[in-house]
Amino acid sequence: MKTPFLLIVVLMALASVGPGPVHAQNADRNKPMNAEADALRYDDLKQTSVFTGNVVITKGSIIIRGERVEVKQDPEGYQQAVSIAAPGKLAYYRKKRDGLDEFIEGEGERIEYDSKQDVVKFTRNAVMRRYKGSVLADETTGSQINYDNKTDVFTVDGGPQNRSASNPSGRVRALLSPRIAASAAGGPVPAPAAPPVVLRASPAIDVDKK
Q1: What is the CATH number of the domain that holds 84?
Q2: pLDDT digits (tens, 9 = 90+) for 88-118
Q3: Which of 125, 133, 189, 195 has its CA 20 to 30 A from that of 204?
């Protein structure tokens, strides 16, 4: 099976949703998963799908890209996806934060996503960014980054795998923008103070003559 850029609507098994009501913080994990790739190998017995060649996975607002993506489904219908980048490149992940005009974007040589736990892990040359609209707000780099979509908590590890010409120590690096208070960001702008009244001296005083 080798059709370039074949649009594959993932099999009914992959379109299954997990049990329970859909909450705001896990809306994406209950959406069906779709995929586009050059080739697909599906094993019904093991409930695995292996996509190869310019793979693009979408699941709600989630986008995962890589050269090879393996998707497994557990008996409850949740999926675990592992994306591997092509040599010299990075796999990609992006998700919209619920209820906000913000996006989480990340890259790594390997990306693992667990829809049941709603967590994502970036490994080797890992970088994660937070955008407010189209403006970069935060950026963190390390050898491994773990991000929990439910709690918006992430951990970053440094190490030898994170060494580069610009970062020979391999230490974690982060750019974190300050959070602006709601009143300052979206509250009403106070009206400017009125200028003080200036009294001017009159050159003459008219007096009524009787």
Answers
A1: 2.60.450.10
A2: 999 999 999 888 899 999 999 999 999 888 8
A3: 195
23-37: pLDDT as tens digits:
334 577 678 889 999
Provide the token pair at 104: 């989480």
- 3-state SS, residue 28: helix
Cα–Cα distance list, 160 to 10, 24, 109, 147, 177 (Å): 38, 38, 15, 21, 27
Distance between CA 106 and CA 155 in Å, rounded? Answer: 13
Task: Confirm whether 30 is domain-assigned.
Answer: yes
Domain count, the chain: 1
| Pairing status of strand 119-132 against strand 91-96 | unpaired
Percent helix, strand, coil in the chain, to 5, is: 10, 45, 45
Classify residue 200: in a domain, yes or no.
Answer: no
* CA-to-CA separations, 33 to 53, 79, 104, 115, 184, in angstroms, rounded: 18, 9, 19, 10, 40
